[in-house]
Amino acid sequence: MIIYSAMPMELIFANMEQVEKQEIQEIQQGGMTMLVEPTGAYEGRIVRLISPNPQDYLNPSYAPGQKIFFRPSMS
């Protein structure tokens, strides 16, 4: 990555170490695998959809950012 800026690098990258890692779970629902960021006990926000079927990506209810309800896995 190249950044062209008049600002000093110390200001640009000041909070890079403080980036909070989000907890992401991989779940399977409806024959698709999704990466979901939990927002509650049985709900989450879709981060990424993983599916071999191109039609799944056209479904707006499985778009990244959509809220989804799921059952936790019994691992």
Percent helix: 10-25%
What sequence of helices (H) and strands (E) makes up the elements? Answer: HEEEHE
Provide the gyration radius in Å.
17 Å
Oligomer: single chain
Describe the structure.
The protein has about 80 residues and is mostly beta strands. The protein has a domain at about 25-70. Helices cover about 10% and strands about 30% of the residues. The protein is built from two helices and four strands; from the N terminus they run αβββαβ. The chain has a four-stranded antiparallel β-sheet with strand order 1-2-3-4, with no helix packed on it. Strand 2 (about 30-40) and strand 3 (about 45-50) form a beta hairpin. The chain is elongated, with a radius of gyration of 17 Å. The mean pLDDT is about 85.
Give a short synopsis of this structure.
The protein is mainly beta and 75 residues long. The chain has a domain at 23-69. It has helices spanning 9-12, 54-57, and strands at 25-29, 32-38, 43-50, 67-69.
Label this structure with key terms.
11% helix; mainly beta; 4-stranded antiparallel β-sheet; 75 residues; elongated
Question: What's the helix and strand layout?
Answer:
Layout (H helix, E strand, L loop, with lengths): L8 H4 L12 E5 L2 E7 L4 E8 L3 H4 L9 E3 L6
Antiparallel strand pairs: 1-2, 2-3, 3-4
